[in-house]
Design brief:
A hairpin with a 5-residue loop joins strand 10 and strand 11. The strands form four sheets. This protein has a five-stranded mixed beta sheet with strand order 3-4-7-9-8, with no helix packed on it. The protein has a four-stranded mixed beta sheet with strand order 2-1-12-13. Strands 5-6 form a two-stranded antiparallel ribbon. It is of the alpha/beta class. It has eight helices and 13 strands. The protein is globular and about 50 Å long. The longest helix is centred in the first third of the chain and has 14 residues. It starts with a strand and ends in a 5-residue tail after the last helix.
Length: 249
């Protein structure tokens, strides 16, 4: 098989300075292909500017669950982070979101936001009753993959960077979140994902004659202006997450 070097970004959430830092880093390291795994704009940060930056890059991009919310729900129906992003977007940016596919496939490479079938499910994490989060078991991962047999699968959604190799030899890579290093969710029960640092995350995967190698990369950037912006717009929880990589008390 021919060698290829792929950069994976995901869950930017309107954090343009984090995206710019990742872009500069991946340009320095080099990549044949950059794929964006979705949830690009939602949040109280720089939704419109981030959309315009991504359109200028022309990277293959899949739609995340929040991307779908922005084009399928009315502003009154949107959760506050989505509503804040929607208020910043013009017709051109919303039209771009409508063009994004749910998944992408290139030969034996498969790209999705969450799982092959759903954009709101966790592929590599399992939430336990009480809110603890653990690495999914091999049987859970196999069930969530369903009939997908691609040799290399990339997903996002959970914001937690991981690289897993299944017993069948499939690689599954989650690059983590470019723009939001911690969050809290209430499905299937209240839980938190925390990465423990404010850095931007992405992944580089390279296929060589010996197989795949994967690097999960953490990129520092000046996160303070984005935390201040989130706080000024009434999103104190986002501010803490952006400052620390934790959700706070």
């Amino acid at each position: 098989m021919p060698s290829i070097r792929i950069a994976l970004v995901s869950d930017i959430h309107g954090n343009l300075p984090a995206l710019e830092a990742v872009h500069a880093d991946l340009r320095r390291r080099g990549a044949d292909l950059v794929v964006n795994l979705g949830d690009s704009l939602s949040g109280p940060l720089l939704a419109r500017e981030t959309a315009q930056f991504l359109q200028a890059q022309g990277w293959p991009t899949v739609a995340g669950n929040h991307d779908r919310n922005l084009i399928e729900q009315s502003p009154a129906q949107l959760a506050p982070p989505d509503a804040c992003a929607h208020a910043q977007l013009g017709a051109q940016e919303l039209a771009w979101l409508r063009t994004l596919p749910a998944t992408l496939r290139e030969a034996d490479l498969f790209f999705c936001h969450a799982t092959p079938q759903h954009n709101c499910s966790y592929l590599l994490e399992t939430v336990l009753p009480g809110g603890a989060v653990r690495l999914a078991s091999p049987s859970e991962i196999a069930q969530r993959l369903g009939a997908e047999r691609a040799a290399f699968i990339a997903c996002g959604h959970t914001h937690f960077p991981r690289a897993v190799r299944t017993a069948a030899g499939q690689w599954i890579v989650n690059p983590g979140s470019v723009g939001l290093p911690a969050f809290e969710d209430d499905s299937p029960c209240l839980h938190r994902i925390e990465t423990g640092s404010p850095d931007a995350r992405y992944a580089l995967a390279e296929r060589t004659a010996r197989g795949w190698s994967v690097a999960l990369i953490s990129v520092p950037y000046d996160h303070r202006p984005m935390a201040q912006l989130a706080r000024s717009r009434g999103f104190a929880d986002w501010a803490v997450a952006l400052e620390t990589g934790y959700m706070g008390p």
